[in-house]
Amino acid sequence: MTRIAYLGPAGTFTERAASQVQDADTDPELIPFHTVLAELDALRSGEVDVAVVAFENSVEGSVAISLDGLAFGEPLVITDEVVLPVSFALLVRPGTTLADIKTVAAHSHAEPQCRNWLKATIPDATFEPSASNADAAREVQSGRWDAALAGAFAAPRYGLEVLADEIHDVEGAETRFVVVRRPQAPPVPTGSDKTTLVLFPHDDHPGGLLEILAEFANQGINLERLESRPTGDGLGQYCFSIDAEGHINDEAMGAALMGLRALCADIRYLGSYPKAHSTASSERRAPRTGSGVDSAIWLEQLRQGHTP
């Protein structure tokens, strides 16, 4: 039986993503963990076979603990991804009204996605961060907090009521989860794949990032995500976490990786895997030849203290 770790307790969006993992085992065992790092440690030790972790949200951005948990420590690889639409419900103990709510708990990534709704609906309530949205629901059940932002599907698990549903500040918000395993050969290319890397430059110098980007551009590879993360070696010491279109078995990706290896002190390859279907529009913006702004005037306005 395949053992799949997810951020618990039962009733999280991560559990829902884990239930969609494609595996030869049709009846996997889903095992909750209290933190993302505990999931990854269990995978590294062999306690579980797969870990599913939230990696990126379309509103709040990347999940730093997941990025760093994969960038450092014993190597692991991403073999698949799951994208879920995300909206929240306000879960309360039976009989609770909006006027009764003084505290609202949720995972720290949930609050920014519902901030305007909370401000407009229960402006005097205090937000309390929890290890997960389902953990917040469990703490509402115990009486610690008055309400939780979580998936509506978590309500019956904890004997709670849905006081409000479809809560979100941005329509069509999605969260991307990655399926992580111990190092192994990547899935075969599908023609619609993604490769995730962490690049550690030799040093910090003018044009260093440009040199890295040129290796992708020269091979016609589009980057879907690029961000810097601190290495922990001191202020100003950063690595680059990247999602690139394509598969390591593609000739273009192979050439880019060889060029990057010569430029970087180290590269952590985190896998090539099929892209998940997203409900959001995948159409790219048409290329633009210019901004239509007089750059010299714009610069002078900035120098004069104006913010056009």
Shape: globular
Percentage of residues in strands:
25-35%
The named CATH superfamily of the largest domain: Periplasmic binding protein-like II
Oligomer: single chain
Domains, number: 3
Structural class: alpha/beta
Portion of residues within helices: 25-40%
Q: How many DSSP E strands?
A: 15
Mean pLDDT: 93
SSE ordering: EHEHEEHEEEHEHEEEEHEEHEH
At CATH level 2, the architecture of the largest domain is: 3-Layer(aba) Sandwich
Number of helices: 8
CATH class of the largest domain: Alpha Beta
Largest pleated sheet: 6 strands, mixed
CATH-defined fold name of the largest domain: D-Maltodextrin-Binding Protein, domain 2
Span from first to last CA? 60 Å
The whole-angstrom Rg is 22 Å
Low-confidence stretches: none
Pfam families: ACT, PDT
Pathway: Amino-acid biosynthesis; L-phenylalanine biosynthesis; phenylpyruvate from prephenate: step 1/1
GO cellular component, one term: cytoplasm
GO molecular function, one term: prephenate dehydratase activity
